[in-house]
Write a structure and sequence with these properties.
Layout (H helix, E strand, L loop, with lengths): L1 H16 L6 H12 L3 E9 L5 H7 L1 E6 L4 E5 L6 E2 L3 H9 L12 H6 L7 H7 L6 E2 L2 E2 L2 E2 L3 E2 L2 E4 L5 E7 L8 E6 L5 E4 L6 E3 L8 E2 H4 L4 E2 L8 E11 L2 E11 L2
Parallel strand pairs: 8-14
Antiparallel strand pairs: 1-2, 1-17, 2-3, 3-4, 5-8, 6-7, 9-10, 10-11, 11-13, 12-16, 13-15, 16-17
Length: 252
């Protein structure tokens, strides 16, 4: 016991003598932590207002490079399936932790919207991107609520507004989403602003973005999980939406 106490005193005196400075080992650990920050580069394009899978296949794609794997996705015009298969599962490595959608690391709205790069005409119609301005899904004889005001617009001020819905699996009651860029077409990811909104729960009654939008909540990454931060540059011309940029994973 006496030997242990003496060694402890010597250790304390040594730290004091060194001015409390970190050793080389500690510095190396800090560098490794910074190097471990994840990156996510997105190159996305989708044609809006289409119901033809051949046209969608020729004009829409999702390309991702980053820490958790790469994606080079689109749809197969013949089968209407995403290629590679289960692209949502590949993107989930970036969208959430532990493959749990409730532990979202990016705004749910943006994570869902990027999948239009590998979506077919059926999803475009169900989710409100076919150009009709209305989303309403029917599965196995059940029809969900009608959501009015969907689609993409670009205002005279340069702001790009995206409104859509999504119901997974055979569910017909969707979540609704709204995203707005700044005047330069930039979507600021991880900023926690009201430019990203979503419904708190699935919509069970008819919904109109123009009159019911006030009921939406701020859409942001879940508190306490690492999240993506950075700017995504968007352009919207001739019914083509493009989104590009690189995000960095952060815990700050």
């Amino acid at each position: 016991m006496k030997k242990i106490i003496i060694l402890s005193i010597i250790s304390v005196l040594f730290v004091i003598a060194c001015g409390g400075q970190q050793t080389g080992t500690t510095t190396t650990t800090t560098t490794d932590t910074n190097a471990a920050a994840g990156t996510l580069t997105i190159d996305f394009q989708a044609i809006i207002g289409e119901t033809n899978n051949n046209v969608i296949s020729s004009n829409s794609y999702l390309k991702v490079t980053g820490t958790y794997g790469d994606i080079d996705g689109k749809i197969d015009a013949t089968t209407a399936a995403s290629v590679p298969t289960r692209t949502p599962d590949l993107l989930n490595k970036y969208r959430s932790t532990d493959n749990n959608v409730f532990n979202n690391k990016i705004e749910v709205s943006m994570g869902q919207f990027l999948l239009f790069g590998t979506a077919n005409a059926s999803r475009y119609m169900d989710d409100g991107m076919s150009g009709s301005g209305i989303a309403q899904r029917t599965v196995d004889g059940a029809t969900g609520p009608k959501v009015t005001g969907t689609g993409i617009t670009k205002g005279a001020d340069g702001v790009i507004t995206i409104r859509f819905v999504h119901a997974g699996g055979k569910t017909v009651e969707p979540y609704v989403y709204e995203m707005k860029s700044d005047a330069n077409g930039v979507f600021q990811i991880g900023a926690g602003t009201e430019n990203f909104k979503r419904s708190e729960a699935v919509v069970t009654n008819d919904f109109d973005f123009n009159t019911d939008g006030a009921s939406l909540i701020v859409d942001k990454a879940k508190d306490g999980v690492p999240y993506w931060k950075g700017d995504l540059q968007a352009t919207f011309e001739n019914n083509i939406i493009k989104i590009t940029g690189t995000l960095t994973e952060t815990t700050n």
